[in-house]
Amino acid sequence: MEGINMKDLLDKAKEMQKSLAKKKEEAATKTVEIAVGGGMVTIMMNGNLETLSIKIDPEIVDKNDIDTLEDLVRAANNEAVRQAKQLVSDGLSDLMTDMKIPDLGDLIKK
């Protein structure tokens, strides 16, 4: 493993681990709010993919048409998850750009 300082590599890994933990904490403070059906169903979710609130306009509640309500909730939830994941992905992308990972040379070659 010529050219690779193992101490520097381990230090960089520890630094990266701390940065990842910090990004996860930051993700919990960021939220997305998705409204579907003209605002009939709204979901708020944080970057940890935790649903913080679901609001359903009483006008959409029809005991004879539960399928529409279920579809709107599902659509709002799926979009909230997609956008919350994007928040995290963007944060991790920034982290990887900021981290200067040493060239691993032969370690990654088969």
Report on the architecture of this protein.
The chain has a single domain (6-108), classed as 2-Layer Sandwich (Ybab, Chain: A). Helices cover 52% and strands 16% of the residues. It contains two helices and three strands. It has a three-stranded antiparallel β-sheet. Strand 2 and strand 3 form a beta hairpin. Helix 1 (6-29) packs antiparallel against helix 2 (66-98). It is rod-shaped, with a radius of gyration of 21 Å.
How would the global form be characterised? rod-shaped
H-E string: HEEEH
> Care to count the β-strands?
3
Q: How many individual domains?
A: 1
Beta-strand percentage range: 15-25%
Largest sheet: 3 strands, antiparallel
The average pLDDT score comes to: 84
Judged by helices, strands and strand pairing, the structural class is alpha+beta
How widely separated are the two ends? 14 Å
Provide a compact summary of the structure:
With 110 residues, the protein is an alpha+beta fold.
Write the layout of secondary structure elements.
Elements: H1 6-29, E1 31-36, E2 41-46, E3 51-56, H2 66-98
Antiparallel strand pairs: 1-2, 2-3
Primary descriptors:
single chain, about 110 residues, alpha+beta, three-stranded antiparallel β-sheet
